[in-house]
Amino acid sequence: MKFLFKLLRRLFWLALALILAAGGLLAFQGYRMYRQALDGQSLEAALSAVRSAPGYTPIDQLPELYLDAVVAVEDHRFEQHSGIDPIAILRAAAHDLRTRSLDQGGSTITQQVAKNLFFTQEKQFARKIAEVFMAFRLEGACTKDEILELYVNTIYFGDGYYGIHDACAGYFGKEPAQLTPYEATLLAGIPNAPSVYSLTANPGLAAQRQQYVVGQMVKYGCLSACEAAAISGP
C-alpha cells in the first residue's frame, strides 16, 4: 500500500511537470507568434489602415443602443477587464475539455479585435495565446471606446459584409446612425455566428438571436423590461 501511494504521488508530480512544460511551450510559441505579427506590421500601422478604410464609422456616429447591445451579448465585463476575462476563459476551457473541441474560446471584444487585426481565424492554442498578448498591447494603446469602435468596424456580419457600415448598407440600405432599435439589436447578434444568423439565409434564426440579445441587455441593466418589449419585433 505504501509503495502504491508513493507511485501515485510520483505519477502526479510527473503529470504536473508535463502539463507545466506543455504550458510553457505554448506560451513561448504564442509570444513568438505575437512578436512576429508586430514585426510584420506595427500596431500603429494596423490601426491606421483600419481607420482609413472606406466606410469606417466613428463611435459617435453609432447608436448607443447598438453599442450597448454589442457589449451585453459579446463581453458584458468589457469595461472592467484589462483585455482578457478570466471567468469567461475558465468557463470556455471547461466546455472545450468536456467536448474535446475548441468551440468556445472565451474571447473578449479586445481579443477579437487583436485577432481581426493580426491573426487568422484558425483555431489553435498558440494563436489564442498570441491573441492574449496582443489584447494587452491594445488595452495599453487604446481607450475602451476606441477598442469597441475598432471591433464593430472589423467584425463579419455574413453575406460578405465586413464592418457595421457595410452591414447597414447591405441589409437595410441605410447609415448606422439611422438604425431602428430592432435593427440595431438584430445586427448585434449576427457576428457570433454569421453563417448561422445571416439575414439572407436564416432570417428566422437571426430574429431568435435578436430576442436573446435583448434578453441579455435586460439581464445586464441596459434595458428595462418595458423598453425590451418595445423592440421585440420589427
Automatic annotation (TrEMBL):
Indicate yes or no for the key word Transcription: no
All copies of domain Glycosyl transferase family, residue ranges: 55-217
Record-linked Gene3D superfamilies:
Biosynthetic peptidoglycan transglycosylase-like
Short name of one Pfam family? Transgly
Membrane-topology descriptor:
Single-pass type II membrane protein
Q: Which UniProt keywords apply?
A: Antibiotic resistance, Signal-anchor, Transferase, Transmembrane
Tell me a Gene Ontology molecular-function term this record carries: peptidoglycan glycosyltransferase activity
In terms of superkingdom, the source organism counts as Bacteria
Q: Which GO terms describe its biological process?
A: response to antibiotic
Alphabetized InterPro entries for the sequence:
Glyco_trans_51, Glycosyltr_51/Transpeptidase, Lysozyme-like_dom_sf, PBP_transglycosylase
Q: A GO CC term?
A: plasma membrane
Cell location: Cell membrane
Q: Which SUPFAM superfamilies match?
A: Lysozyme-like
Name of the protein described by the UniProt record: Penicillin-binding protein 1A
